[in-house]
Design brief:
The complex is a heterodimer of chains A (about 100) and B (about 500). Chain A is mostly beta strands. Chain A has no helices and 9 strands. The chains are: A mainly beta (about 100), B alpha/beta (about 500). Chains A and B meet through strand 6 of A and helix 1, helix 7, helix 8, strand 13 and strand 14 of B.
């Protein structure tokens, strides 16, 4: 998936921007995310419904994937079934 | 990824929150986004290849920056302080452009170039009134977001290019989305054509920190605005801080009513060398304020290294002279940036050893319109000289290419020398930086009198420069010498001239 691609959840309101990506399948709420959608096609699966937070970056363990949440929703983000976690960077003082 | 995403996200999360205050008018994120989207329509309709701002800071800077981003056209704020001849050259280079600001000057200097020129109010009003089709698509942000003309040493300014990807890496890597408190406000007083003026807009919008614009800096108005808007954050260049402190000190000795700027939690500074006495005085005058020294360049999308508030206090309070010197450091690289010092042969320097500063990272563009300055491994040679100490703190020791940085303003020695050489009694001339408590650096000149001529008066040389260039170029010190020092290749040894003038 190309950096800058905007993906939408098929099962909740979540939208992400792809910052970094490999060839795996990016999912939200257990369902593959899509570039264009007309409406939700179900609910997030129960074990993938922790929700996404606006402005958080989500990464996989290997650091191959990074997604920026630009619209929050009820589902959890995953790649090929492996749940992504938020990237917690040490806050920097404002410098400009 | 388009930089407009920053404003879109702020408007999505907090549409009614005030994002910007300028000249008493308040703009919410939703209003700013709507105006930027309208501006994108104007820009597209104009067929412009660049969007330029020839104006002081205002809401138009935000509208033009993000409007240009949405339309996929580079935003190119211009230095309105440039002399006519220089500005005319730049206006021609960006033609045809949609230009906001000084309509008369553009019409006078760059006629028949196909520019679409708007007064500030007209541009903002038209952007707000523009019809935007529902669900329309915008530029993907794969190209150039910002183009800034650097005031380099060469005669013709270089067009530094910052891609959407550079600026987005910088913001996403350094700013927490919506990380600011509802009451936070950042006072922005750097000019819009400076990289710090652009990054300040993006950082604050993404953090949802209210931007308070001060279009023209004066210490009294800075203090007044900081008090009135309960400002919490501010960025200044060293000269500004020095003048603010002077004004505060003067008002307290005059027994004037005490100003209340205790809301100021954080002051960051950069853009030139901060004299130790000034920062020490500032730390005493603002005991509760966190100071951050930021080092960065246009070509690196602003900050690449910083010295944080705790490090300032620690160095300031230390009795150890070595620890105290850290106050003069620009700190450590950002976690997302690598910094190396290299000697003239390109080898990495040992700790404490001075060389040229190289920077690498996604935010580093190192690219000019003509060519990229990055090496094969992606390192950008900054042309700044410096060293890194044993604990990884970066110290700057001047500009590798002898640019004079007076109060945050970069001046090339060449332009001053060129003017001096037009004097009939001057055979050779060299302009260098000399230390100045007030400005960080000021101009010093060494002059060789033409053979058989009478030595010109100091005042005449100063008058000559004042008449042809800006007053900031007028030398503080003039030295007449028998000859200038050159190396065997005929290259002027500016370092030696500096030593002569320092005496």
């Amino acid at each position: 998936m190309k950096p800058g691609t905007r993906l939408k959840s098929a099962v909740c309101d979540t939208e992400v921007m792809v910052i970094r990506s490999g060839d795996g399948q990016i999912e939200c709420g257990g369902a593959a995310m899509v570039e264009a959608k007309t409406g939700n096609t179900g609910e997030p699966s129960a074990d993938l419904a922790a929700g996404t937070l606006m402005g958080k970056r989500y990464v996989d363990a290997a650091g191959a994937y990074e997604l920026l949440c630009v619209k929050p929703g009820k589902g959890s983000l995953s790649v090929d079934g492996a749940v992504l976690v938020t990237k917690d960077a040490k806050p920097l003082p404002a410098s400009d | 990824m388009n930089i407009a995403l920053l404003l879109e996200m702020a408007a999505e999360a907090a549409p009614d929150r005030v994002g910007l205050v300028c000249d008493g008018k308040r703009w919410t994120y939703a209003e700013l986004l709507a105006a930027a989207r309208g501006a994108a329509e104007l820009i597209e309709a104009s067929g412009a290849g660049h969007v330029a701002l020839l104006d002081e800071s205002s809401e138009a800077a935000v509208v033009a920056l993000f409007g240009a981003g949405l339309a996929g056209v580079p935003y190119c704020p211009l230095n309105y302080r440039l002399a006519d001849a220089d500005l005319a050259g730049l206006l021609d280079r960006i033609a045809p452009a949609l230009i906001v600001g000084d309509v008369n000057r553009v019409e006078r200097l760059s006629t028949g170039k196909g520019h679409s020129i708007h007064l500030r109010a007209h541009f903002v009003d038209s952007a707000q009134a523009a019809r935007v089709a529902e669900g329309r698509e915008y530029d993907q942000g794969e190209g150039v977001a910002v183009q800034l003309f650097t005031s380099g040493t060469t005669a013709s300014p270089k067009a530094a290019i910052l891609r959407h990807s550079n600026l987005m890496s910088y913001i996403l890597g350094t700013v927490e989305f919506a990380g600011a408190d509802e009451d936070d406000a950042a006072l922005v007083c750097v000019p819009p054509y400076h990289i710090a003026g652009i990054s300040a807009l993006m950082s604050s919008i993404y953090a949802q920190r209210r931007i308070v614009l001060l279009p023209a800096f004066a210490p009294e108005s800075w203090i007044k605005l900081a008090e009135a808007e309960r400002v919490t954050n501010a960025f200044v260049v060293p000269t500004m801080l020095s003048r603010i402190i002077e004004t505060l000190d003067a008002s307290s000795t005059n027994g004037e009513e005490k100003v209340d700027i205790a809301s100021l939690r954080a002051i960051s500074y950069g853009g030139g060398k901060m004299p130790l006495e000034i920062i020490s005085r500032a730390l005493e005058l603002f005991p509760e304020t966190g100071f951050t020294n930021a080092y960065g360049l246009t070509e690196t999308s602003s900050t690449v290294a910083l010295l944080g508030p705790d490090e300032h206090r620690k160095a300031h309070l230390s009795d150890d002279p070595k620890a105290r010197t850290r106050l003069a450091s620009v700190g450590q690289p950002l976690p997302t940036v690598e910094i190396e010092i290299r000697d003239e042969d390109g080898r990495c320097c040992a700790p404490g050893e001075a060389g040229e500063i190289y920077v690498r990272g996604d935010q580093v563009s190192g690219e000019y319109k003509e060519k990229s300055a990055l090496d094969a491994e992606g390192w950008f040679p900054t042309r700044d000289a410096g060293y890194i100490d044993e604990e990884g703190y970066l110290f700057l020791s001047g500009r590798a290419d002898d640019v004079i940085v007076r109060g945050g303003e970069n001046m090339s020695p060449g332009e001053i020398e060129d003017v001096l050489l037009t004097h009939p009694d001057v055979a050779e001339a060299c302009a260098v930086a000399i230390p100045s408590v007030e400005w960080g650096e000021a101009v010093g000149i060494a002059v060789v009198t033409r053979e058989g001529h009478v030595q010109p008066a100091e005042a005449d040389l100063k008058e000559l420069i004042r008449g042809r260039l800006r007053s900031s170029r007028v030398p503080d010190k003039v030295l007449f010498v028998e000859q200038l020092p050159y190396n065997e290749m005929g290259k002027l040894l500016r370092r030696e001239v500096k030593v002569l003038l320092a005496d």
